[in-house]
Amino acid sequence: MATSAKKAAQKNKKKNPGKSFLQGVKIEMKKVIWPTKKELINYTVMVIVATIVVMAIIAAADGVFSELFKLLQLVVG
Predict the structure, then answer these.
(1) What is the pLDDT of residues 62-72, one digit of tens each?
(2) What is the pLDDT of residues 8-45, one digit of tens each?
(3) Is 63 found in the same domain as 38?
(4) Same domain, yes or no, for 42 and 74?
(5) How would residue 6 be classed by pLDDT, with cut points 50, 70 and 90?
(6) With the CA atoms of 17, 23, 26 and 28 taken in that order, what torsion angle do they form, in degrees rounded to the nearest 10?
(7) Alpha-carbon gap, residue 44 to 49, rounded angstroms
(8) Could you tell me if 14 and 2 lie in one domain?
(9) Domain limits at 43?
(10) What pLDDT score does 8 carry?
(11) Number of folded domains in the chain?
(12) What is d(CA 56, CA 62) in angstroms, rounded to the nearest whole number?
């Protein structure tokens, strides 16, 4: 009996693989724990702040290296 169920499932997959995929997606989406509005706002603010901090670090490093290369160019010629 299990063999016939497997064959039927395989036959259904061959008919419309897109349908079984979408059914799987629907099942998985029901398992997702979505953030609340407050959590979403907090996460968004954290990402923006982290992006600004990293941007500032990169800008500072760029400025320092730029000045070092200018100084090196003056010394070496």
Answers:
(1) 999 999 999 99
(2) 666 655 667 778 899 999 999 999 999 999 999 999 99
(3) yes
(4) yes
(5) low
(6) -80
(7) 9
(8) yes
(9) 33-77
(10) 61
(11) 2
(12) 10
